[in-house]
Amino acid sequence: MSSNAFKSTASRYTGVAIAFHWLLALMIVGSFSVGWYMSDLPMSPTRLKLYNWHKWAGVTILALSALRLLWRLAHRPPADLPAPRWQQQAAHATHIALYVLFFAVPLAGWAYSSAAGFPIVWFGVLPLPDFVSPDKALAESLKGLHAALAFALAALVGLHIAAALKHHVIDRDGLLDRMRPAR
Q1: Which of the chain's termini has less CB crowding within 10 Å, N or C?
Q2: What's 42's domain CATH number?
Q3: What is the pLDDT of residues 47-97, one digit of tens each?
Q4: How confident is the model at residue 1 (pLDDT cuts 50, 70, 90)?
Q5: Residue 159's closest CA among 62, 91, 63, 110?
Q6: pLDDT at 9
Q7: Where residue 181 falls among pLDDT bands split at 50, 70, 90?
Q8: Residues 6+ apart with CB under 8 A from 18
Q9: Is 55 within 8 Å of 109 (Cβ atoms)?
């Protein structure tokens, strides 16, 4: 069976898929920005508040990513636009890597928080289980892993944005319109 048998004939993503895309995009950019900013702050109430917000955002991103993946598995995306095969393969590989990082970044952050001995209480209400027992050496390793994965995600997001703009400005093939909210 060809891969085209699993493609939709729709020209746009569903409203739910579009909502997931833009909500997660805003949350990921916001969480990355706060994470970068807070990491250099001296210990203070502001830093502690930002760390909690960052953790809450990470857990929310993780939950929304799971819902987004379930939605994506149950709903076919629009058919690929005509493009060279290498571009289609690069787009598919990038999307798979993005999905992997949607899960890996917050899970590494959660494990880091657990190893550092700082439990996550989602929105200050729901205590979440620790992934690992407190371990200072492991926490340092996981901190670096979380940061490296976050920067990899940021780089892929940048690539994704650049490719979308290339399609919109240079190719003028309507690719960006498939993910724009309805007017």
Answers
A1: C
A2: 1.20.950
A3: 999 999 999 999 999 999 999 999 999 999 888 888 889 989 999 999 999
A4: very low
A5: 91
A6: 56
A7: confident
A8: 12, 179, 180, 181, 182
A9: yes
CB neighbourhood size of 39 (10 A): 13
Beta bridge partners of 8: 78
Q: Which domain holds residue 117?
A: 10-179
Whether the CB-CB separation of 27 and 64 falls below 8 Å is answered with yes
Q: What are phi and psi of 127, to 5 degrees?
A: -70, 130
Helix (H, G, I), strand (E, B) or coil at 21: helix
Map residue 129 onto helix, strand or coil: coil
* Cβ–Cβ under 8 Å, residues 162 and 155: no
DSSP per-residue codes, 24-88: HHHHHHHHHHHHHHHTTSPSSHHHHHHHHHHHHHHHHHHHHHHHHHHHHHHSPPBPPPS--HHHH
H or E, element range at 121 = strand 121-122
Burial 123-152 (b: 16+ CB within 10 A, else e): eeeeeeebeeeeeeebbeebbebbbebbee
Q: Does residue 165 sit within a domain?
A: yes
Contacts of 33 (CB under 8 A, 6+ apart): none
Domain count, the chain: 1
Q: How many residues does the chain have?
A: 183
